[in-house]
Structures are given as C-alpha cells and as structure tokens.
Design brief:
Layout lengths: L1 H21 L1 H23 L2 H41 L36 E2 L8 E8 L5 H10 L4 E4 L1 H4 L3 H9 L3 E4 L12 H19 L15 H9 L5 E2 L3 E3 L4 E3 L11 E5 L3 H4 L3 H14 L3 E3 L6
Parallel strand pairs: 1-5, 2-3, 2-8, 2-9, 3-4, 6-8
Antiparallel strand pairs: 6-7
Helix pairs in contact: 1-2, 7-8
Length: about 325
C-alpha cells in the first residue's frame, strides 16, 4: 500500500507539469489518473471484490469448522449418552471403557519366566500377560458348556470383545450357538476335543486331542485356530510340540479368573495389570449360582472401576 501511494505522488507531479505546458487537456488527464489511483488505494484499503469474497469465504470456512466441531461434540455426547443408557439396561453402573486402537506393531510374545519346558525355545510361547503399557485387559472364555442366548446379546450390544477356547465334547450339541458368536466377531480357538489332563497322555494321544479339535473347528466354523489353551492350564514339552505340529502359534494362559461374585488373581498383589489375560468359563446357575450375564456384570464393574478397558486379544498377537 505504501508503494502504491509513492507511485501516485510521482505521477501526480508529472501530470501537473504537463498541465502547465499542455493546458486543459493535461489537467483533465491528470485528474483522471489521480481518480484512478485514488480508486486503487481505496480498493486496496477497503478490500477488492476478490479479497472481500475470500474474506467472506474464510469466515464461512471458520463457521463451518466451528459447526463441524460442535456437531462432532454433539455426536460424541449423544453416543456417550446412548452407551450409558445401554449399560444401565444391562445392569452396569458405568459403560465399559473404550479400548484404544490396536497397536500397529504387535508386541513380542515370549514364554513367561517359570513356565518354560526343556528344549522349548522353538515351541509356541506360553504367557499370562501381553506386553503393553495400555490399560487394557483381555477376556477369554473356556470350554462351551453353557449356551446362554442372553450372554450373546449382552456382549454384542455392549460391544465387549472376548476370545473363546472350545472343547468339542461340550460344543457339538449346539454348533449354531458358536457360529452366531463367530458371526459377531469372536475368534474360536482350541481347548482340545475332550478336555483331558494332557501331561498324563502320550505324545500321540495329546496330538490327537489337539489336532482333532483343529480339524473339527475348521470343519464346523471354517477357520483353523492359531491359539491353544491346555485344559486346566497343564502342559508339558509333548503338549507344546504336538500343538506346534497342529499349527498352533501361541498358548495364552491367564493372570486372573472371573466368577459371578469374585475375581481370583495369580499375582501376589491381587490386582489387574496392563495386558493381563482374564479367564472365565461358559457356566450357568448350576455351577455359579448365577448366569453368564451376572459374571460379565461383575467382571466389567471390576475392570472399569480400576480404569481398564477390555481389548481384543487377537489384535495384540
């Protein structure tokens, strides 16, 4: 703007000199030029039509961003309100905390100290906790005895992830129940055909139990498992060698166990830790004096009160 003003003064002086030598025509021309320069300065100071439009567009964009942010906050508030209402409907005082996004780089899984077997360096790792700094735990459910449809509905509506470890002798009377579970995103894994105490069996019989269940799950549910949990958490070197030969990649055990009215812990501090695996079972009133939804209510109260979210185990392996 300053440059325009200086140029205008220079041109005005030139045209006044021309007016003295050339007469009225020069005066008129000078006046026209001065008017033009004045218009240019006025436009620059007040904003040309293009700049005005850009300014308006900028204000419109800012208004749009503010409206978008307000809309996002409104949507988030509405979702939070809906989650709270849904949790209350299922008997939870607080909605489950949302798990963070799955890690882009999976943590390295190794066998927990004290859980090794001889010559087990190349065998599937046995672990009770996933290495992570996130405040997440993993819910796993064993065997398949109880087939409560309310449990499926509860987990689906609350969007609580979990992993199942199935024994065929308890599952075979109702494969559709577990197909419904699988359709909701649950991974179905191996817990042997008949839930035997594996260290008491020969290598061949252990392999038949593990590989037989691999074949059954693939036949019934279309996907061969990569995770295996030995019954009672008991195993030996033959167990892990047999599991590896059947395509098993890892052996998750647990660091806490859930019931309808209590939690048991492996560690001396009786607390949850980031990455802990929680074990529970498909059980009902005959065994627990409560239902599977009762068990989930107790688990979620414990987990949420301690500031943990339930994450999907397979996302970390």
């Amino acid at each position: 703007m300053q440059l325009v003003g200086q140029t205008g003064n220079h041109r005005q002086s030139g045209h006044r000199s021309a007016a003295r030598t050339r007469g009225r025509f020069g005066v008129v021309l000078a006046a026209l030029l001065v008017a033009g320069l004045g218009t240019a300065c006025g436009s620059a100071e007040s904003g040309t039509p293009g700049k005005v439009e850009k300014a308006k567009a900028g204000k419109g964009a800012e208004a749009g961003e503010e409206a978008g942010a307000a809309g996002a906050l409104g949507n988030a508030a509405e979702r939070a309100k809906a989650r709270a209402a849904l949790a209350q409907r299922w008997g939870l005082a607080k909605p489950p905390l949302l798990a963070p996004a799955a890690p882009k780089t999976k943590p390295q899984i190794t066998t927990r100290e004290g859980f090794e077997v001889e010559d087990g360096e190349d065998l599937p790792p046995v672990f009770t906790t996933v290495p992570t700094e996130e405040k997440v735990v993993f819910l796993t459910i064993d065997d398949g005895a109880e087939k409560d449809p309310e449990f499926l509905r509860m987990m689906r509506e609350l969007k609580i992830p979990y992993t199942a470890f199935l024994s065929d002798y308890l599952v075979r009377d109702n494969y559709p129940y577990f197909k419904e579970m699988q359709a909701a995103g649950v991974t179905l894994n191996n817990h042997t055909l008949n839930h035997r105490y594996l260290p008491g069996l020969s290598y061949e019989r252990q392999r038949a139990e593990i590989c037989g269940q691999q074949d059954t799950i693939q036949k019934q549910f279309g996907k061969r498992p990569t995770l295996f949990r030995p019954p009672y958490g008991n195993y030996n070197e033959d167990t892990l060698r047999a599991a590896k030969s059947c395509g098993i990649k890892a052996v998750p055990l647990w660091n806490a166990e859930a019931f309808t009215k209590r939690m048991d812990y492996r560690e001396w501090d009786r607390e949850l830790h980031p990455g802990d695996i929680i074990l529970t079972h498909f059980r009902g009133k005959e065994d627990w004096k409560g239902t599977m939804p009762d068990m989930i209510r107790h688990v979620m109260k414990t987990v949420t009160d301690k500031g943990y979210a339930v994450a999907r185990l397979e996302d970390y392996l």
